[in-house]
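FORM 7B: Structural annotation worksheet

SECTION A. Query
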Amino acid sequence: MIVPKTPEQIEQMAKAGDILARCLRMLRSKVRPGVTTAELDAAAEKFIRSQGATPAFKGYRGFPGSICAS
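SECTION B. Predicted structure
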């Protein structure tokens, strides 16, 4: 079922997408041999929260991380 979005909801989704894109660019700059997924997760959570957002994965059905990386 398709649920139409209001203009305000679309704007919120666009803002969230922008935060995600910038977070992924930041993470890409940190990836190198020896960096752990835990370090990347911590960097992502710090960035996401600095933008006034909340990591969507964190706590979902008990998921411990802010990102899903393996």
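SECTION C. Observations
The CA atoms of residues 49 and 64 lie 16 Å apart. The chain is about 55% helix and 0% strand.

SECTION D. Sign-off
Analyst initials: ____
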